[in-house]
Amino acid sequence: MTQQTAMRRNRGLYINGIWEVEEGQAVGESINPATEEVVGTYSLATSRQVNQAAECAKRAFKAWKRTPLPERAGYLWKAAEVFETRKGEIAEMMTKEMGKVLAESLGEVGVVIETCKYMAGEGRRMFGETVASGAPDRQITMIREPVGVVACITPWNFPVAMGGYKILAALISGNTVIWKPASEVALSSQLFTDVFHEIGLPKGVLNLITGSGSKVGAQLASHDDVKVISFTGSTEVGIKLSETASRSLKRISLELGGKNAAIVLKDADLDLAAEAIIKSAFTTTGQRCTAASRVIAEKDIHDSLLEKVVEKTKALKAGNGLESGIDIGPIVNKQQLDLIMEYIDSAVREGAQLECGGKRIPGDKGYFMEPAVLSSVKPSDRIAQEEVFGPVLSFIKVKDFEEAIEVNNDTSYGLSTSLFTNSLHYANKGAREIESGLVYINNGTSNAEMGVAFGGMKQSGNGHREVSHHVFDIMTEWKSVYINY
């Protein structure tokens, strides 16, 4: 290991425009889930360092909110250019840290680049309003203003895209940011942050704090200087953060779990459905909030669809995401792999049939498993109700469209649902009756596009949206101005 490599692996925390490591700073290790090798170390922030980041962000807010919006947008355009030149470096680090195949990681950096451009342009459209007054000689305007310090708490499955969605929206709005990424991808977050250091973003506007969610995340959620929390992760953690935030009336945006389904009617194109289901279920090794976890199929085509999906699943090749020809990478860590296996065992005990996969892939190193397809799953089974967050797909047989909608909606989640049909009637009826924030007709459950509101219903979120201009509803607040003349 060269000295240059060692320094890069632990840049430390990024506070007030400086990479710093305290003497005696505790560190954590980032582990490659494909090889179980240590990728590098990252700093575990102390309570004092969290307070320091909050103080610096609060101080920087005074100048940043007054920075002309075109100037703020200029930083995002510069960032897009640097992300383009460093795409390979960042993508490789993501694959090493969380396991997704390199092509996915490269695509994720591409999403960040597009988000930079989108938010830079969308900032020009943070329009206010002029309202007709009922009084003579009075003008009334309503304007958007930034809120203050935004704490962005992001998961490991999309190390830079999730950060990009939140951070870029906060910055263009005139807020300052403290970013607490998942520890599994701390080194990827360092590379992301270093892009903004390279372009000369003013000190204190973006701060990176690494460490555990139970300590660092909890401290940010209760910190007086933090005015907004933007969180993506599990529903359980989201509820705890919401409870903490409510004590100081913080704004909080939650993008939480899902139990997403692909509904396939008897008139559907089964080849199209099978291909879309495979991509939705097993891309990112099923470790995404919008992954297809259930297939709800009408009885007339259930067996044929199951056969097609099983055949395609068996053809998937698992392995190190840095190698060519790999379709799915490892599970992020041993704890998650053990949990997925327990879900499969539980499903079989409840009467499900394991059609293929569902076993650990033997080898000396790595957290690999065969993608699993289960049949004879009942709507009330645990595997049909709880988020697995892994490459496990459950088939549920229903008699007709009405039962399919009932089964789809009968979970505590409501993030994403696909409906495969050639009927204009059922396509429109399904779009109306499906209880999900995202509805796809004849496409998979993971097909979000830039500029389209992203988020879920029920316990998949708390009503706020990201990825589009609707994110400004959480990142800004309205001020009504009355001028008498």
Characterization of the model:
- The protein folds into two domains: about 5-255 and about 460-485, Aldehyde Dehydrogenase, Chain A, domain 1 (3-Layer(aba) Sandwich), CATH 3.40.605; about 260-450, Aldehyde Dehydrogenase, Chain A, domain 2 (3-Layer(aba) Sandwich), CATH 3.40.309.10.
- The protein is about 40% helix and about 20% strand.
- It is built from 16 helices and 21 strands.
- Helix 3 runs antiparallel to helix 5.
- The protein is globular and about 70 Å long.
- The termini are far apart.
Question: What Rg, in angstroms, do the CA atoms define?
Answer: 23 Å
Overall geometry comes to globular
State the helix count: 16
Number of domains: 2
Largest sheet: 7 strands, mixed
- What is the name of the CATH architecture of the largest domain? 3-Layer(aba) Sandwich
Strand content: 15-25%
The count of β-strands is 21
Low-confidence spans:
1-7
Separation of termini? 71 Å
Helix content: 40-55%
Average the pLDDT over all residues and give the rounded result: 96
At the fourth level of CATH, the homologous superfamily of the largest domain is Aldehyde Dehydrogenase, Chain A, domain 1
* Structure classification: alpha/beta
Under CATH, the topology of the largest domain can be stated as Aldehyde Dehydrogenase, Chain A, domain 1
Question: Major sheet: order of its strands?
Answer: 14-15-16-13-12-18-19
The CATH first-level class of the largest domain comes to: Alpha Beta
